Batch of 3 targets.
Target 1
Amino acid sequence: MTPDPDPCPAPDPDPRPAPGPDSGPASPPAPRPAPGEPAAAPPAARAAHRRDLAAVVACALLVVAAALVGTAIEHANGSLHVNWPPLYASWFPHLGPGTPAALAVAVVVIVHGPSLAARLPWRRLVLTGWAAALVWTGSLALIDGWRTGIAERLTTAYEYLTVIHRFDDAGAALRDFTHHILNNAPDHWPAHVAGHPPAAVLTFVGLDRIGLGGGGWAGVWCITAGTSAVAAVLLALRALTDEATARRAAPFLVLTPAAVWVGTSADGYFAAVAAWSLALLALATTRPARPRSPRAGALLRAAAALASGLLFGLTCYLSYGLTLIALIGAAILLLTRTARPLPLLAAGALAVAAAFTLAGFSWWEGYRLLVERYYQGAAAVRPYAYWVWGNLACTVLITGPAVVAGLRRTLAAAPAALHALRPSAAPPRAPAARLAVLVSAVLLAVLVADLSGMSKAETERIWLPFAVWLPAACALLPAHRHRRWLAAQAALALLLNHLLYTGW
């Protein structure tokens, strides 16, 4: 961990945003308002904000279209296998014990989040961000009550806890794992066990072995581990862009609609493991925030690279599709123009792969059988022509309108930022440009996952490992509008959790 930096500099007294990459020529300075009067935004900033709102409206229309078309398809032939397209959910307006806490967290983060993010010492901000995300996510889960919202989520017939007893001899279960993937195999695994490499179920076997068995502990584990992704993304943003960018993004990383699915699904836990792998890679490619001796700095970077590799290997054995985080890792290496961490990163990843292989599990055989199993179930009838764009509507719902606006600004900045990644060009130094590269890599991973056809529906949880990074784009939004955007984020999350009964 990096030490606390020097005290945060005083905020700019002029709240007007600087011209962004899509704002056109700089406007002449406007006269300062009298005390107590709102500052008038320059024309370029107002135009950029109108484009933000247009992007949000366009994505809202995408969601509406996905809901209307999906409902028509489901009523016609039932091929979507979801009750409230494009989400795996049912219409169920309700309140619950988590409602007051969720409302309170939303108000606190909206009102005080931006100012606290600007002035808290760095280490305290990282821990506070994790804690706030933990309370926000737990409160949303408790809207459905303790049993329904947390304790029973991972105990259904599709989930991991139903097969814990079959791992009394873990070695034999691993050697025999691939023999139970297909639907027509004897004593086949439940859907989620079959759909993932064995590190996923072994996590819950491990919890059971240390006395933390049952759905309650499993749910608490997923929420606690999953929300730590906020801390990981903050550390990565500080290393790859700058501290000011990370601080601006912090409240949006906390108050994300994706928290509805982080609490409680195992994919929230997978997202955190992947996020820490990438955060450690970012730390391995950059210098510590405070000067250290060259030897100490080199040792820290080497340790971070090895740990990143170990977690990347674990990520690949938690979910086959999360090999796509390699695209984000490649963007980190391109931004920092170094390949120094690669040997240790590869050693860590190969160590995990060797351990599972020696234990008797073949990743490639498991993936081959998974593809076959995938098309033995609902995927055989779920229409690709709908889900290839319906999945994107899901992504809008789990990331929120502020992220849509931030991504619009990201895409506006991306061409120039990506152009600077040419070997003959100097790497982009502006934090906004570096952020644009990082977020563009996340969007590329989402696009590849979408086009693969292996993510037809349920992407509100499956794509959590990518979704946790996208709120970083909100750092590009003008600071004086942050509270309004945060309110929109909170409102969407609260509506989703109170109006729908989500499947995960």
Target 2
Amino acid sequence: MDGRGRVRPGDARLFRLDRTEGQEHALYVAAGKDTLRQQLTGWLADGGVPVLVVRGFGSQS
């Protein structure tokens, strides 16, 4: 919005409802490596699906 409370062109793209409101379950995508976070977020952001990174233990070779 501008300083006078008017909607500017393009503001509608910024509006998003909570996709989980009223839902019994929530959807998340978990990645095992942080290097996948950016790629997965790029694919899933438009759908509002959050991406989590779950780092495991380092290899013990």
Target 3
Amino acid sequence: MTTGRVLRRGAVLGFGALWWWAVARLLLVPDAGAVEGAVAAGGWGLSLLPVHCVPKARAQGALAAGRWRRAWGSARRVRVRSAGGSGEAAG
């Protein structure tokens, strides 16, 4: 294993242990304070972040820019046609 991989795994284990310590204190100790709450909430919040991001141009299976705009535009055109072509959207 390379040094970088060992350090990364050590950091992950260390921060994971710190998070579990904070959660255990919050659950088990009646006078747990703001520090434990901040560590627990911060660790949970970090778990929501995408950590394996790549630029969209390099992402495998990435969707083209403007895909949703085109989809909404085609749905609007379908409603206009079904309304009799009056130029106003049905609704």
